[in-house]
Amino acid sequence: MPSIKSNALEPTRPELAALTRGQAILRLLPVYGLPLLTLLLIVVFSIMLPDTFPTWLNVRSILADKSIVALLALAATLPMMAGRIDLTVGFGIVMWHILAISFQVWFGMPWPIAILLVALCAGFVGLINGLLVEVAQVDAFVATLGTGTILYSLALWHTGGMQVMGKMAPAFLAINNASLFGIPIPAFYVLVLAILLWIVSERLPIGRFIYAIGANEKAAALNGIPVRRYVIGVFVASGVITGLAGCVLAAKLRIGQANVGLDFLLPALVGAFLGSTRRCSTTRRTASSRSGSSTTT
Hints:
Layout: H1 13-17, H2 21-28, H3 33-48, H4 56-81, H5 88-105, H6 111-134, H7 140-159, E1 164-165, H8 170-177, E2 179-180, E3 183-184, H9 185-203, H10 205-215, H11 217-222, H12 227-253, E4 255-256, H13 265-275, H14 280-296
Antiparallel strand pairs: 1-4, 2-3
């Protein structure tokens, strides 16, 4: 029977070397289909709306509005690399942006301390998620959905269903409102974080270990990779990134309310799903061959 297996996985260099130039281009098209489609849409809308779409004002608006979603998508990508899912990226930002404001307005904390405490709280929630998934062996979807629901309930309890507002330091508001070379500063957060995660995932052993866990957890464990430690670590990292995104959202909205944040959940997860190109085939082959050699020995 003809195979219907997707060929959207990134081909290896030996696979590309065995193909002609035309075949290699056709092989790479499914892999880079989304960026190509994005460029095509930009061209189409620029032709259809030449006075409004291809303008610097529109570019600034898109970068400013979608940076928080991009940060959450990067946060959700880390657990996905390990074959897990983290729903608290959407629920958590509700709590974190409220805490970032209430720490300053209600408790009089300096804004750097408020950001640090939010990041620590978010990392602690990520630790709880990791322990539930790896130690208690609760499915990641169920565990993070439960944790996220509790966070949302705590946000409602903390605010009493009211808005949290008050005077905040201009330096805190600048973490969202400032610009660099005419580009909104949140876009640079996304750029720096994306480059950092790319270096970690593609150029460092820790990234290959996480990919191996996501591709074949048992094979990764047989090869000596501490699966539990790395899975808990990606949940903690995801939580910290979500907490920092909540601080940026707080600086953007200047008010904290429990009905803001859940709208980010679906776009963030969709962005993580569509934007992730995992070298599953290569990782599986490598992990399986190593586990085979280990068991033979």
